[in-house]
User: Which sequence fits this backbone?
């Protein structure tokens, strides 16, 4: 009991509590952790991570089962039995070959224009156009503007195609003439006039159907499915051959455009995901012969994803394969990694020219260098559209061509494959012909002439402004939001690259500014922008050694904290390789660094941006979400040779030896690189950019004369057969961890 206290003591101490030895609470006191003596191993061992623990348990169970089978075999044969190779491999900790049967592994490479898939045991994949046709009130040619875009009501070609584009085209023609004269090639002064006058007078020749031996077999929309009803969905080649005037009408849907999920043409996210699932499902059944879905549980799947991917796209593919298709295991591999596996290279700068995007990445020891990844939004499809547009400008006889129509698109692809080249030796005025085969119409034979269009269209890789880039970002992030960090919901989590950021910063320098002047902030009164607590490291500063002798040769992988508000912090501008201001309006280039190789003449860099603290208004911090939103609004487009040099410089981080090694191992893959003379032309452009390293630069096509289109798929099939592959994701892991299991399983930093 508490003893009595006299009134004198109370008057002296007031309401002070007298000490009676009782604690405030019976809950034990937990002292704070001393970081200097922090020896806990929580989440630092493999057995504490579910994905790795399940993998170790599966290997242990496999070893036990193999031991039991061996003992049983020894008992049945009186102790004389030879160990199979499978058991020997299993004793080493690797899976047995029966578990890694290549005929039970499906390799999938989805693209913007084609889907390539097949078993890992196949020599070559099956190629299916990535398109789906469903019943719809209107066709795509009726719903959308004609391609190439032009004003049909105008009379002159300059007015139809636009004054700005016409001037660019004329400038390219004049530059080509100068270049050909410098190379001692004969140039006729009236070549263009010959082409224009001939094409203007040409009339088509009508050929009846019974006289056309190459008549196209169009898809019959009244075909009955297995259930006896009319087919409502067609995929691949069948979808492309559905007549535009069919009854009922069908519309073509393309789930992937420009390397992204196609949010522009789809009304809902569910419709987009459903079409993607339908194409894969029917491809498995019709192309691979997997008619019964109950058999799919015996198969594994390897999916090829872009180097710079959207995490929502990867997670959706994983969900499709595990939950809908019910594959036993799924693994992911990046395109550049797969290309080096397919070609047998240990170190390379991979240039993948696809249909609607061109990706560049440097690979070293089988892993992609993160800061070297670049994704440009143009490819072979842009060459096709520009080639047709240039010929239309020169009075192409088939003026009604519209790439939205299915037969016109197939015709344009055929013309590009036949006639486009990057060799100046093949540039001359020549007569050509083509046959226009439209459904329910007689065949029409056209004669036409062309001159420099065949080389100027693919030269758009080095001058992308000639392409139509006006609608490539329409409705970006309209249906599918970007991925955010699981522990910080305001921190964008999609992969970033210093080289990609340099390309974006050249187009719009503000994408790298983490602060903005208060005077330019137009928010509500009193509103304060949050300070980002994480930020991606700046791209490598090529001129850091000139400006600051103590600068480190490379960027740290750890994110740096954002500067405090109100502090004047200079933000270094990103640097992108460039040789002259004529190509990229003065893009910066690397210079001599500590005795390194000097950059070509005429290159310079953008000055660093800083904010003066003397002004009355203090600069406000931009959140990481604001920066990501602005970067998404910039279309990544740059000349191919400058993008390659930027990627290599960001991969080397100032190491001149590595720059020379990567310049000597540039590998070109993808369908867009099948244009004749593509690799030698790229090599010439790179040597012009770095004349000091002319002897070191080497651009090669795929090894062993393999088709450039299938190198990536072939590499993924080789990867899937590796016995030491630890990147498989099982259904059990996905059901427990969800998409978080990708973080622990993929071979790169997810």
Assistant:
């Amino acid at each position: 009991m508490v003893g009595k206290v006299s009134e004198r003591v109370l008057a002296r101490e007031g309401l002070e509590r007298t000490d009676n030895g009782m604690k405030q609470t019976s809950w034990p006191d937990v002292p704070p952790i001393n970081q200097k003596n922090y020896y806990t191993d929580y989440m630092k061992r493999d057995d504490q991570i579910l994905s790795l623990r399940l993998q170790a348990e599966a290997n242990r169970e496999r070893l036990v089962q193999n031991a039991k089978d061996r003992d049983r075999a020894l008992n049945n044969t009186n102790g004389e039995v030879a160990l199979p190779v499978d058991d020997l491999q299993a004793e080493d900790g690797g899976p047995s070959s029966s578990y890694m049967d290549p005929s039970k592994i499906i390799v999938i490479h989805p693209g913007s224009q084609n889907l390539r898939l097949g078993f890992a045991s196949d020599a070559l994949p099956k190629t299916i156009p990535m398109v789906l046709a469903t019943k719809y009130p209107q066709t795509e040619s009726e719903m959308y503007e004609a391609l190439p875009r032009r004003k049909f009501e105008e009379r002159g070609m300059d007015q139809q195609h636009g004054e700005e584009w016409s001037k660019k085209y004329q400038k390219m023609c004049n530059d080509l003439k100068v270049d050909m004269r410098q190379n001692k090639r004969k140039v006729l002064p009236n070549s263009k006039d010959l082409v224009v006058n001939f094409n203007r007078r040409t009339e088509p020749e009508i050929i009846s159907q019974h006289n056309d031996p190459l008549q196209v077999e169009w898809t019959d929309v009244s075909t009955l499915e297995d259930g006896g009803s009319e087919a409502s969905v067609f995929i691949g080649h069948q979808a492309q051959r559905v007549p535009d005037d069919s009854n009922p009408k069908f519309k073509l849907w393309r789930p992937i455009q420009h390397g992204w999920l196609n949010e522009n043409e789809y009304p809902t996210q569910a419709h987009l995901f459903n079409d993607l699932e339908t194409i894969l499902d029917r491809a498995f059944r019709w192309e691979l012969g997997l008619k019964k879905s109950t058999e799919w549980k015996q198969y594994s799947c390897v999916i090829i994803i872009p180097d710079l991917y959207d995490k929502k796209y990867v997670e959706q593919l994983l969900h499709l394969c595990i939950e809908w298709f019910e594959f036993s295991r799924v693994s992911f591999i990046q395109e550049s990694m797969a290309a080096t596996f397919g070609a047998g290279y240990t170190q390379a700068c991979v240039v993948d020219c696809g249909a609607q995007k061109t990706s560049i990445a440097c690979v070293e020891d089988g892993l992609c260098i993160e800061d070297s990844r670049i994704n440009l939004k143009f490819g072979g499809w842009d060459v096709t559209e520009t080639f047709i547009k240039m010929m239309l400008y020169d009075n192409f006889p088939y003026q009604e061509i519209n790439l939205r129509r299915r037969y016109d698109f197939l015709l344009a692809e055929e013309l590009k494959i036949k006639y486009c080249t990057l060799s100046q030796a093949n540039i001359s005025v020549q007569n050509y012909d083509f046959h226009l085969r439209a459904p329910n119409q007689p065949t029409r034979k056209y004669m036409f002439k062309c001159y420099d269009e065949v080389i100027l269209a693919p030269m758009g890789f080095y001058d992308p402004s000639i392409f139509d880039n006006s609608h490539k970002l329409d409705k970006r992030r309209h249906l599918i939001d970007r991925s955010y960090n699981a522990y910080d919901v305001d921190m964008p989590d999609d992969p970033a690259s210093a080289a990609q950021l340099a390309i974006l910063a050249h187009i719009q320098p503000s994408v790298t500014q983490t602060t903005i002047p208060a005077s330019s902030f137009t928010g509500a009164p009193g509103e304060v922008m949050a300070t980002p607590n994480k930020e991606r490291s700046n791209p490598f500063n090529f001129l850091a050694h000139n400006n600051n002798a103590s600068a480190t040769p490379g960027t740290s992988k750890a994110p740096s904290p954002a500067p405090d508000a109100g502090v004047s912090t200079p933000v270094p501008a990103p640097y992108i390789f460039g040789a002259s201001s004529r190509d990229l309006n003065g893009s910066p280039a690397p210079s001599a660094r500590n005795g390194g190789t000097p950059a070509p003449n005429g290159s310079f860099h953008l000055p660093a941006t800083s904010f003066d603290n003397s002004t009355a208004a203090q600069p406000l911090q931009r959140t990481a979400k604001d920066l990501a939103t602005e970067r998404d609004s910039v279309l990544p487009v740059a000349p191919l040779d400058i993008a390659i040099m930027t990627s290599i410089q960001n991969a080397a981080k100032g190491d001149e030896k590595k720059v020379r090694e990567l310049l000597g191992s540039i590998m070109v893959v993808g369908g867009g690189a099948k244009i004749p003379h593509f690799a030698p032309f790229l090599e010439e452009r790179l040597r012009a950019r770095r004349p000091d390293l002319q002897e070191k630069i080497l651009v090669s096509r795929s090894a062993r004369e393999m088709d450039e289109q299938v190198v990536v798929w072939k590499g993924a099939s080789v990867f899937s057969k590796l016995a030491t592959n630890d990147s498989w994701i099982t259904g059990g892991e996905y059901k427990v961890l969800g998409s978080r299991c990708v973080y622990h399983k993929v071979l790169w930093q997810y």
In short: The two ends are 64 Å apart (CA to CA).
